[in-house]
Structures are given as C-alpha cells and as structure tokens.
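Troubleshooting entry. The earlier prediction with NAP gave an output that would not parse, so I re-checked the input for stray whitespace and re-submitted. Clean input:
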Amino acid sequence: MTFTLNFGIVGLGGISETFARDLLTNPLDRGVSDVNHKLVAAGSSSDKKARDFLERVGASSATAYSSYEGVYNDPNVTVVYIGTPHSHHYHNARDALHAGKHVLVEKPAVITADQMRALAQLAQQKHLTLMEAKWTRFFPMLKEIENKVHSGVIGDVKQVHADFGQTFTGVSSDHRIFNLNLGGGSIMDLMPYPLIWVFSVLFYHPANKLCKPSVRGATCIKNQYGVDEMTTALLKFPGIDADAVLSSNINVGSISTLVVRGTHGELVVNDLPLSRPLSYEIRLRDTTNPNPDDQQRKTTTYHHPIPHHGMHWEADEMARLIAAGESQSQRVPWDDSVLSAELLDDIRSQAGIKFPAAIESV
Ligand SMILES: NC(=O)c1ccc[n+]([C@@H]2O[C@H](COP(=O)([O-])OP(=O)(O)OC[C@H]3O[C@@H](n4cnc5c(N)ncnc54)[C@H](OP(=O)(O)O)[C@@H]3O)[C@@H](O)[C@H]2O)c1
C-alpha cells in the first residue's frame, strides 16, 4: 500500500519552488513505491503569487491562500513545508504545530538553539512530526561516504575540511542574504552544510560515541551590510580525536568542497555545491612504503547522479515518519538540529555576529 502525504507550502520563494517540483515527481524515478506526495495548498503574501506558483509547478488544482494561516487551518493539509527566510522559521513552525500540522522546516530550522528546543518540546507535546529539512542527509552518496569512512576505508579519520562558497554577487542588495533582520550572511545560509558533512563523518562515527564537538575559534569578514561575507571555524571532536575546519562564503563559489583526511588516505568531494554533490574520490596511500613522500597513491572516483533535484528524499522521510506515527527522524533527530544550532550560536558569537533580539526570541 502506498501512503500519500498531503503537503501545504508557505513562503513561496526560490527553494519552495524547487521543493514543490521535486515533490510532484514520480517516486518510481527514484525506486520508491511505499510513499507518494500531493501538493494541496500554498500560502503566500498574495493570492496571485500563490496561484501563479501553483500553476508554475503543475499543481493548479491545489488551494491558493493569501496568508500562511490559510494553509495551517486547511483540513486537507497534513504537513507544512516552511520555505521562508530563517528569521521566520521558528514562528512559522510554531504556528503550524499549534494548528496541529506536522512540520518540515527549511535549514537552518531556527536562529538559536533555544528556539529549536522549544519547537521540539511543542512537537513532542502535540505528538506531531517535526524535522529540519537537512535534505543532503538523505542522499545515497552521503550514506555511502558515511559507511566507507566509518568502516575505516581511509584509516582513522584525523581531519576534515568542509567548505561551502556560493556567489551572491549578482543578487540585489535587498536580498535576504544581505539583511541581518532576516538572519543574513554566510554562517546561517551556508555553514549548515559543512556541519552536515562533518556530523556525518565525525560526529556520527562509531568511534566518536556521539561526543559533542567544541568550537575552538571562529572569525569572519563582514561586508558593507554588516553580515558575514566569509567565516571560518575550527571544531575539535574529542571523542574521536579529530579536528574540522569549516568555511562559508557568499562572495566566492567553491568547487572543491570536502576533504576527509585519514591515516591511509583521503576522501575528497571535488564537486559543487556541498549541498548536492554528485561524485567523490578516494585517494589511498601505499602504506607499505614507510616513507610518506614516496608513497604511491591510487585514486578511485565514484559517481552518484541524482534523479531530479534530490529534495524528494526528505519528503519521503516525512511521509514514512508520519505513516509510522514517529515524531522525529533517526537521520535528522531533534538533538542533531539542537547541536547544529548550538554550534552556529557559538560560531556567530566568536565571529562577532549579533542578530536583532526580535529574531532570536522564543
Ligand atoms: N535546502 C536548500 O538547498 C536551500 C536552498 C536555498 C535556500 N534554503 C533555505 O530556504 C529558506 C528560503 O530561502 P529562499 O532562497 O527560497 O528565499 P527567497 O527566495 O527569498 O523566498 C523566501 C520567501 O519567504 C517569504 N517571506 C516571508 N517574509 C519575508 C520577508 N520578510 N522577506 C522576504 N521573504 C519573506 C516570501 O514568500 P511569500 O511572499 O510567498 O510569503 C519569500 O518569497 C532559507 O531559510 C534558506 O536558508 C534552502
């Protein structure tokens, strides 16, 4: 039996459109037959924007609302996908949960860790499913990399360098990325992805035993709008005795995005963006040669094409969780979202980025 999940979407910007298109693809294209999705409602700042959106993505029979409340209160809607700027996620998610809807909220789910704790508590009280839309966690390629690194293919992991740079130079100055009131800057927009990868290969490594990392330093360069244009953070994972360098940049796009260094070699993602790479390499040293400078290296490349954009996998996860009556995902549990929000709080604080109190409130 196929379980069909009825989605409502609020905040009809760029990523909501990508998500909606993926939602409406044929699950069989990705080998999925147990769940399917329907887009039944969309809520926006204007009725016309909602109708145009639904028409564009091929869901013109869905209901268009000129408010988000219309979606929250629509009895046909089972789950609300929130695609507003980060500054609005907490309040939108809270309103949807209060209305009795399950919630899939874009990354970063919140501005502060306290907000994530409050959302998790509310979802638990109301027996509703809540998940941060960390779509990359559901990619088959990420799972394969996780398995290889955890099973010691590159030896003991010692260091990770994860970088996400994306050029926003052609974007108008009133874009949310340049607005502190909307949680702008590279830390909140891009750093969640270096964190996703570092969590996968280090935090969830069995040897780490879920030991929390600490931020040993973070610094940024601000632009003329006062948001961080570029940030670098150093993290220590004491449980596995490994370090991570995380960087994000809204000025320069990066192609080489991830290097995982182990005692036998490296796993390298030489593909962009870090949110959706399609290939990786494993470079192994000939460790039988005692001189590291003379060791031969063997490189193998692995390709993982993604059917459509790849956001459907997180939608499938929501459908399976709701069908099973589960409040949270094992791949993106609430503790995962709280931990990434705590680290982002710390990185911002050490880098000297302060948001207006209004968007940090609980
Ligand atoms: N998963 C990913 O790969 C990915 C990629 C990009 C972005 N994101 C995340 O998704 C969220 C939205 O990003 P986006 O690039 O889609 O943003 P966007 O294109 O600017 O759209 C955001 C939408 O939110 C609504 N909104 C409500 N209050 C707003 C305000 N004060 N200012 C601007 N818009 C407001 C608007 O929709 P209405 O007019 O319809 O209400 C707007 O179209 C962000 O949190 C971002 O981090 C995720």
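This one parsed fine. Residues 11-16, 44-45, 49, 83-86, 88, 106-107, 133, 135, 176, 182, 189, 275 surround NAP (CB under 6 Å).
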